[in-house]
Amino acid sequence: MAISIRTTISGYALPSSGGGGDTVQPPSPTSQLAGPGTTSLTHTFGAFTDTGGVISSYVAAIIAAEGTASVSGSGLGAYTITVSGGSSFSLLLNARDAATKIVATAVHAIFVQTNGTFVFQSANPTIYPEGAGFSGSIQTGGTKS
């Protein structure tokens, strides 16, 4: 019996530093599945909503739940993500204002299949990598094999 691990992705927006009704919103969160042995992937982010022209720069960061990862690129992308020895990574794109304050963050989740199978729940954008070996919350009533 395999235990399904559930990871939920979301972007967030902070109040902008501009005046009035300035709004900065990240693009919708995205995710990507890659087959076993994948070491390099690319991703381009969608546009942020920036009604007041608050965004002055973007800074990308990669978080590895296990293994190692690096990222290179600029602006909205394309970003090249190099991964090694892991199965779960989050690529974050922070939109910053002129004072370098983060005003919104876009999220792209990356799952590299190491063993087992990936299970999608089509009514829910959550991805359930079976046997992927990273921490998260255990979903009750998960997929069994």
Structural description of this entry:
The chain has 145 residues and is mostly beta strands. It has one domain (5-135): Immunoglobulin-like (Sandwich). Helices cover 0% and strands 47% of the residues. It contains no helices and 14 strands. The chain has strands at 5-6, 12-13, 24-25, 30-34, 40-43, 49-50, 57-64, 68-72, 79-84, 88-96, 102-112, 118-121, 124-129, 137-138. The strands form five sheets. Strands 2, 4, 7, 10 and 11 form a five-stranded mixed β-sheet that branches. A three-stranded antiparallel β-sheet has the order 5-9-8, with no helix packed on it. Strands 1-14 form a two-stranded antiparallel sheet. Strand 8 (68-72) and strand 9 (79-84) form a beta hairpin. The protein is elongated. The chain starts with a strand and ends in a 7-residue tail after the last strand. Mean pLDDT is 74; it is low at 1-12, 14-20 and 118-145.
